[in-house]
Amino acid sequence: MIKIAVLGYGVVGSGVVEVIERNNAEISRKAGDEVAVKYILDLRDFPGDPHEDKIVHDFDMILKDPEVSVLCEVMGGVGPAYQYTKRALEAGKSVCTSNKELVALHGAELLELAVANRCNYMFEASVGGGIPIIRAVNSALTAERIQAVTGILNGTTNYILTKMAKEGMDYSQALKQAQELGYAERNPEADVEGWDACRKLAILSSLMTGKNVSAGKIRMEGITKISKADLEYARVAKMVVKPLVLGKMLEDGSVVAMVAPFMVPEGHPLARVDDVFNGVLVTGNMLGDAMFYGRGAGKLPTASAVVADVVDCAKHPGKTVWCFWNQEEASVADSSQTRRAFFVRAAAGSQDVLEKAFPEGRALLRSGGEDMGFITPVMKEGEFDAKCAELGDAVLGCLRIL
Amino acid sequence: MIKIAVLGYGVVGSGVVEVIERNNAEISRKAGDEVAVKYILDLRDFPGDPHEDKIVHDFDMILKDPEVSVLCEVMGGVGPAYQYTKRALEAGKSVCTSNKELVALHGAELLELAVANRCNYMFEASVGGGIPIIRAVNSALTAERIQAVTGILNGTTNYILTKMAKEGMDYSQALKQAQELGYAERNPEADVEGWDACRKLAILSSLMTGKNVSAGKIRMEGITKISKADLEYARVAKMVVKPLVLGKMLEDGSVVAMVAPFMVPEGHPLARVDDVFNGVLVTGNMLGDAMFYGRGAGKLPTASAVVADVVDCAKHPGKTVWCFWNQEEASVADSSQTRRAFFVRAAAGSQDVLEKAFPEGRALLRSGGEDMGFITPVMKEGEFDAKCAELGDAVLGCLRIL
């Protein structure tokens, strides 16, 4: 029997217990042995909970129990979670986690610790919830040189932008609705400013390069400045606005990594990824584009991904499965050299100025607007930024175009 | 070093050699050891080919070479391919294949042979080309009870229906273009009648049930009777026509399996899978729907999937990785009990008859048509078939609605 411990009995933790209980036959068949939860670590007591007898408060009890071979760290944060994970791996116990913050910050170090102790640190649930995107990169597309990942990895901002586009809400209305439905936190900063997506992109980019891409080196822009007018212009241009992450390998081995809202052409596979759904396009040099789509968050999809990791650990006792991310810092390229077209929203009457600044661009018209839209030709980001600075107050907003 | 043999130096076989050569560093890193092609088995000689020195004509040479641990069977057909695969597995050599015909016919038996000889029979490339759908079912979504697979798994028919819908071609024009581009065979029967999709669905349904679903038990309808008029009515109803495969687990453990063109609502994730692309929606009881999308055919995408299997074999010497498909015949349910809505194209003037036959249905109008369209309420397939038989010649065509 594979006995596991769940660290943290919150939303994901209770999901892990539920998934293991409800799908026990399938899970045990795939794991090759029966999987059972032995301990649940939490500060709180849960009187009356059907798993009350498994609740413990002392991590050492789990650490010292030789029967426990796999831990699910679903407590979040980087304080105790980091310490517990290190101690578990040092003791040769595998750790499966949904904690993207910890993986983005210490993934390389913890993977090396797992290798040294012939166990596993797995984090399928840290990116894309139930979508098996980490397995796609690590153990499915293994014959590919992965050249780029482009995706929608934050369901909250995708929900907000979908509502703004489809129901004509403005940003604050859509955010309020997302909060009411539990899709956004009371303090929504981590989502709307891009931190959550940034951590996920740091993880994917690190796996793509094999080196460490720090979240802090990723160019990040939130969605808070997007207006209803931007979405109307997007519709006129047959595009939609999506909160994207982009990681791209350059010829010299460096990586361009960026989190920002983009205008995406309607025919693009990511354009139809709406509401709280996530989608990731992986570009390989043999395969071309493959897309993975599904629920990027939520109790059961996320727990399902954690348990899939448990199954993988159970199938590989005494062996490290993944170790393609080392502590050497990846070279993160300056995005100012990246070339693309841009959308500019400008004060009404600025057409002449825009045409002069961006020859060969084209104006976009919307009915009843007090502003104007403009699409530039393909140019370097740095060059675009310089032109915008020159245009000063005439520029009301701008977006990259995929 | 992992030395492999490639059986068949055709399109996929030369792709396998090319992928291993071009991505050797990545592949060897993921495999944990250098991967190299030692033999290429083919009846022909290839004078001047850069791999001429590896060409052999005698299978026994490969079988008897203890250095060769993995064979790529990419020759197709079920004659020699079946014999070679059996003999290789009996000798403890793993086999990776793109041969869907052989997998659909003898997959369960060959998997058991692999288990008995502590090696692997892998077939990622047999379904969905470069899309890692077999891995999704076998080794990624391992915490799920998979309830259904719904997909577009035949690129040729998807291309034909896309051209008919988007460029107003009729069936024969679109087929001719697909043949000119090499997307369809000179004898297109296997694609347009549904055999190719049927084999792929047999494989996925077998993996979903864990038992054997024979292709011959799958209800199969081709796309040859679909007219431009059907596509116009689909547009009026905000739907598209797609060549689908459907496999669904029922409560009693039996499976409904069907290959047929369907009308799919425009907002459905599969509605946007166009041209030669494939897409598969997997429904799990925890995850909900996850979609996998990409190139379902082509030399390099297919070869990439074969090589991903080689990597997996290399990582697991002496160990069988997948064995979730046994020879017991699955119970395939009668699809006449399945409930859904249907589209009927009927002779002009049949509205009264249709409304009588299908109360609560609704008529669809298109401009300039000499026929009429009608959408029935949700009903059992068997009931629909009986009503259609009663209507006789008034029915010009019909399609299921997803």
Please summarize the sheet with the most strands of chain A. 11 strands, mixed
Mean pLDDT of chain A: 95
Greatest chain-chain contact: A-B, 49 and 49 residues
Q: How many β strands of chain A by DSSP? A: 17
Q: Point out poorly predicted stretches of chain A.
A: none
Contiguous helical run count of chain A: 14
User: In one word, what is the shape of chain A?
Assistant: elongated
Helical/strand content category of chain A: alpha/beta
Looking at how many chains there are and whether they match, the oligomeric state comes to: homodimer
- Going by CATH, the architecture of the largest domain in chain A would be 2-Layer Sandwich
CATH topology annotation of the largest domain in chain A: Dihydrodipicolinate Reductase, domain 2
Please give the domain count of chain A: 3
Could you characterize what this model shows?
Two copies of one chain form a homodimer. With 402 residues, chain A is of the alpha/beta class. Chain A folds into three domains: 2-130 and 299-315, Rossmann fold; 136-295, Dihydrodipicolinate Reductase, domain 2 (2-Layer Sandwich); 335-401, Alpha-Beta Plaits (2-Layer Sandwich), CATH 3.30.70.120. In chain A, 37% of the residues lie in helices and 25% in strands. Chain A has 14 helices and 17 strands. Chain A has helices at residues 11-22, 24-31, 59-64, 80-90, 100-116, 133-140, 155-167, 171-180, 189-192, 195-209, 228-236, 299-315, 351-357, 381-391; strands at 2-7, 35-41, 55-56, 68-73, 94-97, 121-122, 146-152, 219-220, 239-249, 255-265, 277-284, 288-295, 339-347, 362-364, 371-375, 379-380, 395-401. In chain A, the strands form two sheets. In chain A, strands 7, 8, 9, 10, 11, 12, 13, 14, 15, 16 and 17 form an eleven-stranded mixed β-sheet that branches. The radius of gyration of chain A is 23 Å and the shape is elongated. The mean pLDDT of chain A is 95. The interface between A and B is large, with 49 and 49 residues. Strand 12 (288-295) of chain A pairs antiparallel with strand 12 of chain B, so a sheet runs across the interface.
